[in-house]
Amino acid sequence: LDKYCDDMVEKNIFSVINGKTLAFDFNKKIDWELLGILIVALLIHSETTIKYKINTLLCKMLQKQRVILNDIQYIDITLYEQLNKLTHEDDIDSQNIYYTANEDELVVGGKTMKVNENNLLDYIDKRVNYEVMKYREKIVLIRKGIYGFIPEKDILIFTGDEFYQIINRMA
User: Fold this and answer.
1) According to the 3-state scheme, what is the secondary structure of 114-125?
2) Label partner for 127 (CA 20 to 30 A): which of 81, 101, 109, 145?
3) 11-20, 72-81, 88-97: the lowest-pLDDT one
4) Helix or strand or coil: residue 50?
């Protein structure tokens, strides 16, 4: 498992955050179903110690759990830092931010709906969800790899945080 992860890090498909946690570049072309099988291997080989951790974002997405701002640092650190900075701004109204991401509206009428102090957290939540939805197809493939060995109902009994702890117990 370490060799596979090392190879993926070397090819810049996985990156390592904080020395141990894997972040995935969902824009790279790899066998995402195989990543699901790797996760099953982590679950089955409880006596095996690996040097990497699977990040909380992936665990939450696999568990169909709500993703929060802190989780997106594993797919876009720049966006994470920008959105996090907004939560500390005193004058959001002067920022001229609208309910859009790139040219897409996050809500109907988003191009004319200005973000302000009262709706900032809603905007961040919708923006995080928008970013995560870009990777939906790849998450479906990872789930397919997992569910080929472990029934979905047996995996979904856990929260994203519990699933994270189970997978990473050995890292």
Assistant:
1) ECCCCCHHHHHH
2) 145
3) 11-20
4) coil
Q: DSSP secondary structure string, 72-133? A: GGGT-HHHHHHHHHHTT-S-GGGG--BSEETTEESSTTTTT-B--TTTHHHHHHHHHHHHHH
92 with 120: CB under 8 angstroms?
yes
- Name the one residue in this structure whose structure tokens are 């994203």: 160
C-beta separation of 129 from 29 below 8 A: no
Residue appearing with tokens 């179903």:
33
Tokens, residue 59 = 């665990």
The H or E element containing residue 155 is helix 152-155
Say whether pTM exceeds 0.85: no
